[in-house]
Amino acid sequence: MEREIEQCRDCNMGEHGKNIESTTHQCVLCTTFHGTKLTSNSTTSCPGASGNHHTSEENESHSMNDNQASRTSSSEPVECVIPNGSTAARRSVFERFKNPDFIGKLNCVSYAKASDAVKRENSHVSKRYEVEKLKQQETDNSAPTVSEKGDTHIGIHKYTDDPCTVYEILRVKRIFQQIPQKKRMPVDTPIFPDKVRFVCISDTHSQLHKCLDAIPPGDVLIHAGDFSNIGRVTEIMNFNKTMGSLSHKHKVLIAGNHEITFDEKTAPGNNTGEMRELITSATYLQDKTIELYGINIYGAPWAPEFGINAFGLPRGEKLLEKWQQIPSNTDVLITHGPPLGHCDLTKSMQRAGCVELLNTIQFRVKPKFHIFGHIHEAHGMSTDGTTTYINASICNLGYKTVQSPIIFDIPLPEGVCKEDF
User: Fold this and answer.
1) Where are the domains of the chain?
2) Which end of the chain is more exposed for a tag (fewer CB within 10 A), N or C?
3) Kind and range of the H or E element at 370?
4) What is the number of helices (H) and of strands (E) in the chain?
5) What number does CATH give the domain 151-420?
6) Which of 46, 393, 56 is nearest to 227 (CA)?
7) Does the structure show a pLDDT above 90 at 309?
8) β-strand 145-146 against 152-153: which pairing, if any?
9) Rounded to an integer, what is the distance from CA 298 to the centroid of its chain?
């Protein structure tokens, strides 16, 4: 019997204004077989579905379990698409695709749609299986080698261009422990005479003046880059003036990927020296070390290539060459980009960090603290048991200055007084 139908709004069964010979269709949201009248007059709620899409006649069929059972064995064609609903509903659909009898009931259009969805699902499963296999079989080929002279050599990880896969391999044997906010040092903690107070910020994007009241006092203020939007002269001058108004005795600064006038590769006319000279209220570090209170602080602006690309380098050899310049006696490391697996997770759930930087830190340098920014949405702290990692981004993903500075203390080395600095 032929009937004119409308498309069922939630499970997408049927086609508007077309006649079909089917007397039933199966709802992929509630996995119940429905009747033929799919018109949207007098809709009522369907158990298990996310919206109201069944007619009163269809709801009668929900209570007719015997009829449903007999319809399941029917040889009549059935329309089906993969739902966007609950996991249970999706699983039910994929299970039915394993049944040859069910496959035989699908019309060509629905089968094509469902087949594409199954292929996508299988692709994700295949990727997960591949990573799990790597985690079981892969030896950490990035582990260091030690020369006869005792020098530690960090190699390039063979999956360096796929940080998500590398992270899945490494997290089985290494520590990636997030530090919750309640365990961070409160910003109003008193400053002790026998400890050096570090205050960390990053990614203020020409808005440092908006967050002055939120920056606590300390001995050393660290800014991990992206203090401007594109490194214009006016931006640098305004930042320098605002930085100078802060009370911290020492201020340490590196550039980020937005400071295009500080990088010879991206600076118009390569006049980077003139731009750096505009910074007079802070110590600017670019692949250099400064010693304060007997504590070695090293700054480097580099990060994997991304978007606005000052100081951006390809993953692997080029970045590793920069990390090899970090002295092994570094106590506080500042980079703009994060290491792999520590405060580097993007909004799209991708890992943005550099595995060669991670290995340099964990196998050779082993600093007490590593401060960085770049990934605004990953603001926070983590640890590997030796080094504390700090993403100090002040701006959130929407470039609003709503995230807090992060502070920490380092005890003064023996025989060192703050008054000496």
Assistant:
1) 3-117, 151-420
2) N
3) strand 369-372
4) 10, 22
5) 3.60.21.10
6) 393
7) no
8) antiparallel
9) 25
